[in-house]
Automatic annotation (TrEMBL):
<dbReference type="InterPro" id="IPR006140">
    <property type="entry name" value="D-isomer_DH_NAD-bd"/>
</dbReference>
<keyword id="KW-0520">NAD</keyword>
<feature type="domain" description="D-isomer specific 2-hydroxyacid dehydrogenase NAD-binding">
    <location>
        <begin position="109"/>
        <end position="297"/>
    </location>
</feature>
<comment type="similarity">
    <text>Belongs to the D-isomer specific 2-hydroxyacid dehydrogenase family.</text>
</comment>
<dbReference type="GO" id="GO:0008720">
    <property type="term" value="F:D-lactate dehydrogenase (NAD+) activity"/>
</dbReference>
<dbReference type="InterPro" id="IPR006139">
    <property type="entry name" value="D-isomer_2_OHA_DH_cat_dom"/>
</dbReference>
<protein>
    <submittedName>
        <fullName>D-lactate dehydrogenase</fullName>
        <ecNumber>1.1.1.28</ecNumber>
    </submittedName>
</protein>
<dbReference type="Pfam" id="PF02826">
    <property type="entry name" value="2-Hacid_dh_C"/>
</dbReference>
<dbReference type="GO" id="GO:0051287">
    <property type="term" value="F:NAD binding"/>
</dbReference>
<keyword id="KW-0560">Oxidoreductase</keyword>
<dbReference type="InterPro" id="IPR029753">
    <property type="entry name" value="D-isomer_DH_CS"/>
</dbReference>
<dbReference type="InterPro" id="IPR058205">
    <property type="entry name" value="D-LDH-like"/>
</dbReference>
<dbReference type="InterPro" id="IPR036291">
    <property type="entry name" value="NAD(P)-bd_dom_sf"/>
</dbReference>
<feature type="domain" description="D-isomer specific 2-hydroxyacid dehydrogenase catalytic">
    <location>
        <begin position="5"/>
        <end position="328"/>
    </location>
</feature>
<dbReference type="Pfam" id="PF00389">
    <property type="entry name" value="2-Hacid_dh"/>
</dbReference>
Length: 332
């Protein structure tokens, strides 16, 4: 089977080729999937995409006309796929629901510690032979109240590390209660209570109509003064314009973001010599208490190995007519 693999970087090519070179003919494309690039899948039966590829109705219709039978997401989230259109066109969609929740949860804790203890700022000072500590006073995690929104695979690991490891008070919000977390003292509360009472808010729920702009002007106004916000889930969980206003008014103590609502077309590329015309992103990057990374939380050897293996196993199972463990179906 021929697979058109969109938006590939060196690390994608390395791990996918290692996992599937015997069985599949892989066409590695650097461009993302979208209306202008769908034709590049001509001659293939499968396409493989990542978080910011556009898999909307017009693209699905183009893919169907080319004879594409399966879209394999090499990620967990599938908010960029029009599942209704895929179903209508008879295109199967698979994803990688769990490749390494440890990769993302550990990165989340890393971001929080770096932000809270100003490690990233200290490192740039020390490299300049500036060993002064003024301005680097941080806060202990121990004893602070952390609100974890979404206690699925990633959020549960974050909640456990913060509760059992660092001795935080942990509040959680999720329609599904995890009893193992309750056993270690995590308290499930309504979202409004979490947003109001947490010193630190970390987001691990999927992007849905209910969670879009979960952190908006109202949530920021209701939050504790000096609240720290961490988002390694999906950018659109936060209204970035409202966040900038709250940062300017010094309502927010710090923000660590691995994702950004308008990241498509910016993240995953070296734009260091380019002019970026996204004023919201550029403004966010000017705050001394904002730490950003470019959707990197998943990027470990273990996760990339698991992503490649699961993606190609799903495509192989599809080819063999076997049941698909990781198929994505339209709800309702
Ligand atoms: P998961 O499906 O295991 O967990 C999501 C949890 O969110 C579930 O427990 C679900 O019940 C809960 N939830 C759903 N709606 C909610 C709501 N309205 N309020 C609160 N909780 C709600 O997913 P996961 O593997 O833990 O991943 C979490 C998110 O992390 C994914 O949706 C994805 O967007 C993101 N992610 C980011 C990266 C990265 O590199 N930055 C990598 C992988 C996943």
């Amino acid at each position: 089977m021929n697979i058109a693999i969109y938006g590939t970087k060196t690390y994608d090519r390395h791990f996918l080729a290692a996992a599937g070179q015997d069985r599949f003919d892989m066409r590695f494309l650097e461009v993302p999937l979208g209306r202008d690039t769908a034709q590049l899948a001509a001659g293939c039966e499968a396409v493989c995409v990542f978080v910011n590829d556009v898999v909307d109705r017009p693209v699905i219709e183009q893919l169907a006309a080319l004879g594409i039978r399966i879209v394999a997401l090499r990620c967990a989230g599938y908010n960029n796929v029009d599942l209704a259109a895929a179903s209508e066109q008879g295109i199967t969609v698979v994803r990688v629901p769990a490749y390494s929740p440890h990769a993302v949860s550990e990165f989340t804790i890393g971001l929080l510690l770096s932000l809270d203890r100003k490690i990233h700022r200290a490192w740039s000072r020390v490299r300049d032979n500036n060993f002064a500590l003024d301005g680097l006073v941080g806060r202990n995690l121990h004893g602070r109240t952390v609100g974890v929104v979404g206690t699925g695979q990633i959020g549960a690991l974050v909640a456990r590390a913060l509760r059992a490891g660092f001795g935080c008070e942990v509040l959680a919000s999720d329609p599904v209660i995890n009893p193992a977390l309750v056993d270690i003292g995590v308290r499930y509360v309504p979202r409004e209570v979490l947003l109001r009472d947490a010193d630190i808010i970390t987001l691990h729920c999927p992007l849905t109509p209910d969670t879009r702009h979960l952190i908006d002007a109202a949530a920021l106004a209701a939050a504790r003064s000096g609240v720290v916000i961490v988002n390694t889930s999906r950018g659109a969980l936060i209204d970035a314009v409202a966040l900038i206003e709250a940062l300017k008014r010094k309502r927010v103590g710090g923000v660590a973001l691995d994702v950004y609502e308008q990241e498509a077309g910016i993240f995953f590329d070296d734009l260091s010599s380019e002019i970026i015309d996204d004023d919201v992103l550029q403004r966010l990057l000017t705050f001394p208490n904002v730490l950003m990374t470019g959707h990197q939380a998943f990027l470990t050897e273990e996760a990339l190995t698991a992503i490649a293996a699961t993606t190609l196993r799903s495509i192989g199972d599809f080819l063999d007519g076997k049941p698909l463990a990781d198929g994505v179906r339209l709800q309702g």
